Amino acid sequence: MMKPLTDSFGRVHDYIRISVTDRCNLRCVYCMPAEGMEFQPHDEIMTYKEITAVLRVLAPMGVSKVRLTGGEPLVRKDLEQLVAMISAIDGIEDISLTTNGMFLPAKAEALQKAGLTRINISLDSLQQERFASITRGGDVQRVLDGIEAAYRAGLDPIKLNVVLMKGFNQDEIKDFIAMTLDRPLHVRFIEYMPIGQSSEEWRRTYLPLSHVTEVCEEAGWSVAPHEGPGGNGPSRNLKVKGAQGTFGLIHPVSEHFCDSCNRLRLTADGNIKACLYWSDELNVRRVAHDPASIEALFRKALGEKPQNHEMALALEKKAQSHTPTGRRMSQIGG
Question: Does the reported pTM lie above 0.70?
């Protein structure tokens, strides 16, 4: 094995999130504007061959976990082919997918057979009218059908990502946690991040996750910390006594987890982002044919990776040490 991918603060990186497209069939309010988005031309998006070429370089350096994201990754044609190509790389042990779930009923089985092991499904409301408002046109029943399809395909664990937003869905916290009581679902409440924006609208909508534990107390649920299949990554995982599933809190703004960061990002147009929040990027697509140059660029990106992001300073309108990214979440990869 080659020298691990370690940054200047001693953090070892074994996980990469790869965006396969900046396009999406929805327009979630926290991810992209309702209109005016300029999408990358298709010929500027990394090919499956280029993505796997990069991963063949990273795997010997210890990258063993890959998550495919977008935009919506399932709008990319024949995504199961990419999953199979990644699955064939020595050293890659875990392949996951983040999706809005709308296309899962038709795709879950093929993805699992190709080598996908687990899945995260975005679900920000269980109420159709509200879901359609948050996603600007989505159908919550199709997402629920996608969850069932993931079960039938044997994907495990199945995590549901819920971005909590004041004035949108904070009154559904109890309903989401109730989903974990009799099914092995793993709900993850995520703080709304100022990616590509730090506007007054974001500040008004931001909701700290302390509100989740308050709801549990009001419901009379006995809740305890949990470690197990539902755990992995930055989530602080909890379980209601007797429940089959779990719920977790991911609070990148109020309690950042930068000290234990082990992840890299690759945008759909081939830019390495060592930190989600800052604007720093290095384009690897132009050297995807050259393993030595790929390695050098990733090591350079990690050498320049800051110790932490400063989203909390954005919330407080305070000066920051670096330049925040101007890309929206859909342009980076969720």
Answer: yes
